[in-house]
Design goal:
Blueprint: H1 15-23, H2 31-64, H3 77-110, H4 130-137, H5 140-172, H6 179-219, H7 224-235, H8 238-259, E1 265-268, E2 273-278, E3 287-293, H9 295-306, E4 311-313, H10 315-324, H11 336-353
Helix pairs in contact: 2-3, 2-6, 5-6
Length: about 350
């Protein structure tokens, strides 16, 4: 429909739209950022553990090329030797592989958060539509991926050729050298190549990450009609309304409990009701800063005791204040005299204790 066309989708994605997209597995992605982080982490790990890994691999190769005359006629010997060498090799490169896995997961995390969605694994039969497939071939995303692939190929090929030409003399000099020397030299060349590739990829990553974020937001943009429809759905959702009311009650309860230490007195039932009253010279009459019954009343009493706020047992007054006042309201005029007697008692008590 015309209302859903890209030209009319001018509104930014709502939080609900973003959450639905995440549930469907649609999150901002940058393959260039992930590759960049993997290269950085791999280069760093290789620089730190390169000598140790080279020594382990050299030992594995040397052990594998050593013939054991006593096991020459044992049919199970090759399997035992190969499995042992495989485990040693895995233990040697295991830390490096772990670093690479963590680096690969860091890319999506930096663009928002890690997201695992079963819906993204479900088959999407619309991708088999030849017309849509033909349209995707000439989309902005496909063109940008093609340009990046060509640029990366030229860049990496240029770096590799330059490194080979720069290191050819050292590589040719390895002929006839011990395994340890060869592995050390090859590792140094690989590390140097990785560092050069990482440096050359900075420009690609700097351009790709903002582009992917912009494209993700553009893809999820909404039309004004979609925004209105979503608002209607949200307003009519009973579960959402109940959740909002629950959150509002919790916020009001926390604010009310925070006001109890500032009260001058808490009038109690003594167990069923509790009403906290505050008063200063700027008020026309005492004000109700907290009230509750049952567990909430108990919590008000506990907070009052923790902060030294006097508790006064006056069951009729506590019930009247609870029934005829709202939170943050001035007490009603029929209760002025009773509350005035309470406040006078509190002031006399404070003066005596002082």
């Amino acid at each position: 429909m015309a209302e859903d066309s890209d030209l009319e989708k001018t509104e930014p994605a709502s939080p609900r739209r973003l959450e639905q997209a995440r549930e469907e597995g649609q999150v901002p992605q940058s393959r260039e950022l992930s590759a960049f982080l993997v290269l950085i982490a791999g280069s760093g790990a290789l620089w730190v553990t390169g000598s140790w890994v080279a020594q382990r691999i050299a030992g594995i190769v040397s052990h594998g090329l050593t013939l054991d005359r006593s096991a020459a006629f044992d049919p199970a010997a090759p399997t035992t030797v190969l499995s042992g060498l495989a485990w040693e090799a895995l233990a040697s490169i295991g830390p490096l592989l772990l670093v690479l896995v963590v680096a690969a997961l860091a890319g999506p995390f930096m663009l928002g958060r890690l997201n695992f969605s079963s819906k993204a694994l479900a088959p999407d039969w619309t991708r088999l539509d030849p017309l849509k497939g033909f349209g995707r071939m000439f989309s902005i995303n496909s063109v940008s991926e093609l340009v990046k692939a060509i640029f990366k190929s030229l860049l990496i090929s240029g770096v590799v050729v330059w490194v080979i030409l720069n290191e050819k003399d050292q590589l040719f000099a390895l002929i006839g050298q011990p395994i340890e020397v060869g592995l050390h030299s090859v590792g140094r060349t690989i590390l140097f190549s990785a560092v050069m590739i990482v440096a050359s990829m900075v420009l690609i990553v700097a351009a790709d990450v903002p582009f992917q974020l912009w494209q993700y937001q553009k893809k999820l943009r909404m039309s004004k009609e979609e925004v209105r429809r979503e608002m209607k759905e949200l307003e009519g959702d009973p579960q959402l309304k109940a959740r909002i009311r629950s959150q509002q009650r919790e916020i009001a309860r926390r604010r009310m409990m925070a006001a109890v230490p500032k009260a001058q007195v808490v009038v109690t039932n003594p167990t069923h009701f509790a009403v906290a009253l505050a008063y200063d010279e700027t008020m026309p009459a005492p004000r109700v800063v907290a009230k509750g019954r049952g567990l909430i009343a108990q919590r008000i009493r506990d907070i009052a005791q923790e902060h030294g706020v006097p508790l006064l047992q006056a069951p009729p007054l506590a019930r009247a204040l609870y029934a005829h006042t709202e939170l943050d309201d001035i007490i009603p005029s029929p209760l002025y005299r009773a509350v005035a007697e309470v406040m006078a008692y509190v002031y006399q008590l404070n003066a005596y204790l002082a």
